[in-house]
Amino acid sequence: MSDASDHEEIERIGHDRVAFAAFYSEHLQLVQRFIARRVDDPHLVADLTADVFLAVIDSAHTYRADQGDPVRWLYGVARNVVAGEFRRRARGRRATSRIVGRALVDADDIAVLEERLDAEAQARRLYHAMSELPDAERAVLELVALEHLTVQEAAKVLGVRSGAARMRLLRARRRMRDHLAQSTAETMETTRTPLEVAQ
Fold first, then answer.
1. If residue 29 lies in a helix (H) or strand (E), which one and from where to where?
2. Which end of the chain has the least Cβ crowding within 10 Å, N or C?
3. Which ranges in 91-161 belong to alpha helices (H)?
4. Could you tell me which residue ranges the RNA polymerase sigma-70 region domain spans (predicted)?
5. How many CB atoms lie within 10 A of CB 148?
């Protein structure tokens, strides 16, 4: 698909229900996986998924094909929505309107989301370890390691140069290696038996 047709397709999402329904169907699982790697509550996954697609409708007119294909743009929208939720949580200002959304999620939906949460548990643990990284380094690492973007694609999502993204990725990987090595050593230390400690 050409840049021009990408732009037209995304722009239509903001005002054309059929275009939005097609985009939603095609990308729903991708968005749910993205969110399930970052949160562990199926209700919150459902809420944030809805928020991402509402943000897609609101920001469709801002899409620029020269900044990346529609999927990369969608990752950027999803990342902003999830980051916004984390900021709201950190400030203690959770929206009470979530209760209404939860009433609309039936038991089958919850079962599917719980399966997705289980499938993404390992990625979520990695994401929590990544929370120790500076924001700029974490952003590029999560897009490359969790979402399987290239460094160039991640740079476009983040609006930085490829060289800057590459340096951030190298620093992030180094910090993660050090962090994971330290965590492994601490785990081994806490699981030693009294006999092993005495030696």
1. helix 17-36
2. C
3. 98-103, 107-119, 121-130, 135-141, 151-158
4. 23-91
5. 8
Residues 6+ apart with CB under 8 A from 154: 139, 140, 143, 144, 165, 169
Q: Which CATH class is domain 121-199?
A: mainly alpha
Say what the pLDDT of residue 87 is.
Answer: 84
Averaged pLDDT score across all residues of the chain:
80
Q: Is the pLDDT of residue 195 over 60?
A: no
Distances (CA, A) of 6 to 31, 72, 146: 19, 12, 25
Distance (Å, whole) CA 131 – CA 9: 35
Q: pLDDT by residue (tens digit) across 25-36?
A: 999 999 999 999
C-alpha 104/C-alpha 112 separation (Å) is 15
